[in-house]
Amino acid sequence: MSSDHDVRETFRVPAGPVELTGIDPRDRPTGPKDKDAAEEAMAELAVRLDTLQEALYAEGTGGGRRSLLLVLQGMDTSGKGGVIGHVVGLVNPQGVHIASFKRPTAEELAHDFLWRIRRQVPPAGRIGVFDRSHYEDVLVARVDSLVAPDVWEARYDRISAFERELSEQGVTVVKCMLHISPEEQAERLLARLDEPAKRWKYNPGDLDSRAKWPAYREAYEAALERCDADVAPWYVIPSDRKWYRNWAVAAILAETLADMAPVFPAPDFDVEEQRALLKESVVR
Questions:
Q1: Where are the beta strands (DSSP E) in 20-148?
Q2: Against a cut of 0.85, is the pTM above it?
Q3: Is the confidence at residue 3, as pLDDT, over 70?
Q4: Starting at the edge strand that comes first in sequence, how are the strands of the sheet with 96-100 ordered?
């Protein structure tokens, strides 16, 4: 298995021009090489994540101001929901805040593009998860020409400033781009059509986005390159293998939480005194 920090270093978006065509969506550059090994690794990560998340939650209830925000972006079927279920689902749901950003409502469109995002920033002690995020406003908005080029162009700097602001407020930001191939996407879309229980997930509009794959790749490359920062790093996760995708995101979260080193708050009472009183107490 990889040592501390290896996973984040491995998947951190490379410096300089970003070319997603040079990153294999089926690659396994570190960690488990098969599904069985990944299951064992996930069992170990589940224990680590649960302990660290509980400490973060307790720290928040004790007056701490820190939280963690996991941003998930990717083409349709890349596995955002799968990560939420198989990775975020490893920890106590009480300590998790999940926000899913779909097409903006009329109310949201009446405000600045970051308005709806700010309302979902995780409170102290929580792990927040964004299923899609503020990056939709430099992805879909760019590819589908929903706003003028000068508008989405200005948003990269505003997004970076927003993420610096979150860091200053005590929010640790982790951004994962779930990198899937068009071939794998086609297989997953067909699987949705083939299985009656999954047909509700299929959206004919997915074909429109699929037809714009090169434009989306270019938009993702720009977002990755221009908005990667140490206070809000981007990680590109090979996602054609679901089990590997889940392991990679879980390992990144575990490393990040370990670096945060959340601490259980000290009790504001005399432990031995309370122990004695409890032993003397009588329930009738």
A1: 67-74, 96-100, 127-131
A2: yes
A3: no
A4: 96-100, 127-131, 67-74, 171-179, 234-238
